[in-house]
Amino acid sequence: MVFLGLNSFELEAFSDSDYGGASLDRKSTTGGYQFLGRRLISWQCKKRTIVANSTTKAEYVAAANCCGQVL
């Protein structure tokens, strides 16, 4: 979770991943969403093009994508 204070609004970002969730090719799915105050301003969900080696790597990729969206 990322917090960035902007006057009376707070920017919140959440991310998650599903390691090897696709039953056919075992690729992970990452997603995230961002709120400004109480309003949803952005969201993303993507099936990765490569197979992650671990749950840690899948979560790191999800967090990195979410931070990139915030920036």
Order of adjacent strands in the largest pleated sheet: 1-2-3-4
Average pLDDT works out at 77
Shape, principal axes of CA atoms: elongated
Strand segment tally = 4
Specify Rg, calculated over alpha carbons: 13 Å
**Fraction in helix:** 10-25%
**Major sheet: size, sense and barrel closure?**
4 strands, antiparallel
Low-confidence stretches: none
Helix and strand composition category? alpha+beta
Short description:
The chain is α+β, with helices and mostly antiparallel strands.
Provide the descriptors you would attach to this structure in a database record.
single chain; 71 residues; alpha+beta; 4-stranded antiparallel sheet; 45% strand; elongated
Describe the structure.
The protein has 71 residues and is of the alpha+beta class. The protein has one domain. Helix content is 23%, strand content 45%. The chain has 1 helix and 4 strands, in the order E-E-E-E-H. It has one helix at residues 55-70; strands spanning 2-6, 9-18, 29-36, 39-47. It has a 4-stranded antiparallel sheet, with helices on one face. A hairpin with a 2-residue loop joins strand 1 (2-6) and strand 2. The chain is elongated and about 40 Å long. The mean pLDDT is 77.
List the SSEs and their pairings.
Elements: E1 2-6, E2 9-18, E3 29-36, E4 39-47, H1 55-70
Antiparallel strand pairs: 1-2, 2-3, 3-4
